[in-house]
Design brief:
With 453 residues, the protein is an alpha/beta fold. It contains 13 helices and 23 strands. Helices cover 28% and strands 22% of the residues. The strands form 6 sheets. Strands 2-15-17-16 form a 4-stranded mixed sheet, with helices on one face. The structure holds shikimate-3-phosphate and phosphoenolpyruvate. Phosphoenolpyruvate binds next to α4. GO terms for molecular function: 3-phosphoshikimate 1-carboxyvinyltransferase activity.
């Protein structure tokens, strides 16, 4: 855990005074936006991202691509293609036009603490015609990157790092990369696999990535990578459509420019759904996709098991998820290995439940924005909770909680998790709620609006 250098302000998390009844328009998916930016930058023609997420992680991705020469023009979209009719009203009619170009160095990339930027861009940098320096927040030096660095070296790239297989580093782009077969251990982050696949159509021989090692986390995010590659014309062989287990192959090919409307971020819908569960209220999320690779879709099942119920409805503007709490919150025993980023929000709800919970399969969360297992244990326990860390997760035994400071360790999902607890527990103060800017800059305002403030 790394605490902020400065001691940021405390935000009094609002207590819910009754059942929440709200419709919450959730901004675009971080994971889809950053994949779409990379694919559009590597395409052979311009493309559009409509309703992209505008947050720290996506602006860092955009700035990095622009530093390498990609044109990204921000406009307010005049098209309503795929968007809901209330786009103009919500200000979500924003669109980014991406104009690919030769990739150039020297350039500097600030990855912040964005896993997608620090993992997805080194393969892009290897295609540039000069050195690309990567640096970021102190925490980015601690997050695993060795899978990407070692694989790129094996595929022909020259990289200078300090020997730890981590940031900071310089990728000496040679204008092209040979590519071909490579073995990696991606058990610490699925993003290693996604990173190599996303740029692979531009490698001379494409790529064959073979995962060797422990369980691969976050499989839906790899499916998202595969789906989005196929949607821009790439040829991908992968385990789920009959390929060899743990092997992905992407052929060399040109990529199409696409006009893509970004889905709402379903993981960022989590605190709002949790609010319905915790207060026995009802929250509607417009534009919830009928089919998606986003891991947040699993919340329909998980939060139903924890006491709510939900319905995917069709409205004149598209589909919406209506989630209703029953007033009871039940504990859960669940493996979250596929959907690790949902863990903080599930832990928050579990701390308020009427029975214990066991969250499993998420040891790799120790290397996320912060050590999430340690952070959740410490912060819930400091409010009077009874949480213990296991080898790969958390045991949560609900107890009456009291107010206090909930530290966030520069982790957006710690801030939203603390806010969920604050709905039910008086006087919870969130340290550095501004850290939600990583993926949801308007969180405090959205939260207040949901509560009718
Ligand atoms: O590819 C992606 O967009 C992501 C993959 C997952 O990473 P890990 O596999 O490192 O958990 C997830 O936790 C992260 O929030 C986003
Ligand atoms: C793990 C996360 O982010 P990152 O993309 O930085 O890995 C997350 O958003 O929960």
């Amino acid at each position: 855990m790394t605490e902020s250098a400065v001691h940021p302000a405390l935000w009094p998390a609002p207590l819910a005074t009754g059942a929440v009844e709200a419709t919450v328009t959730v901004p675009g998916s971080k994971s889809v936006t950053n994949r779409a930016l990379v694919l559009a930058a590597l395409a052979s023609e311009p493309g559009w991202l409509r309703r992209p997420l505008r947050s720290r992680d996506t602006l860092l991705m955009s700035a990095a691509l622009q530093a390498m020469g990609v044109g990204i023009e921000e406009t307010v979209s005049s098209s309503t293609a795929g968007g809901s009719a209330d786009e103009a009203a919500t200000g979500s009619g924003e669109a980014w036009r991406v104009i690919p170009s030769g990739l150039h160095g020297p350039a500097t990339v600030d990855v912040g603490n964005a896993g997608t930027v620090m993992r997805f861009l080194p393969p892009v940098a290897a295609l540039a015609d000069g050195p690309i320096r990567f640096d970021g927040d102190p925490r980015s030096y601690e997050r695993p990157l060795n899978g990407v660095i070692d694989a790129l070296r094996a595929l022909g790239a020259r990289i200078d790092d300090d020997g730890r297989g981590a940031l900071p580093m310089t990728v000496h782009g040679g204008g092209a990369l040979e590519g071909g077969p490579v073995r990696i251990d991606a058990s610490s982050s699925s993003q290693f696999v996604s990173a190599l696949l996303l740029s692979a159509p531009r490698f001379n021989q494409g790529v064959e990535v073979r995962h060797v090692g422990g369980r691969l986390p976050s499989m839906p995010h790899i499916r998202m990578t595969v789906d989005m590659l196929r949607a821009v014309g790439a040829q991908v062989d992968e385990p789920e459509t009959g390929g060899e287990p743990d092997v992905w192959r992407v052929s060399h090919s040109a990529l199409l420019g696409r006009d893509l409307t970004i889905e709402p971020d379903l993981s960022n819908a989590q605190p709002f759904l949790a609010a319905a569960l915790v207060t026995g209220g009802r929250v509607t999320i417009p534009d919830w996709p009928e089919r998606t690779t986003q891991p947040g879709d699993a919340l329909r099942e998980i939060f139903t098991e924890m006491g709510g119920s939900c319905e995917l409805t069709t409205t004149p503007n598209g589909t919406a998820l209506v989630f209703t709490g029953s007033g009871r919150i039940h504990g859960i025993d669940v493996d979250l290995g596929e959907v690790g980023e949902l863990t903080p929000g599930i832990a928050a709800v579990a701390a308020l439940a009427d029975s214990p919970s066991t969250l499993r399969g998420v040891a790799h969360l120790r290397l996320h924005e912060t050590d999430r297992l340690a952070a959740l244990t410490k912060e819930i326990n400091e409010l009077g909770g009874d949480v213990t860390e296991t080898e790969d997760g958390l045991h949560i035994r609900p107890r009456p909680l009291h107010g206090g400071v909930f530290r966030t360790y520069d982790d957006h999902r710690m801030a939203t998790a603390g806010s969920v607890i604050g709905l039910a527990v008086k006087d919870v103060q969130i340290e550095n709620v501004a850290t939600t800017a990583k993926t949801l800059p308007d969180f405090p305002q959205m939260w207040a609006e949901m509560l009718g403030a």
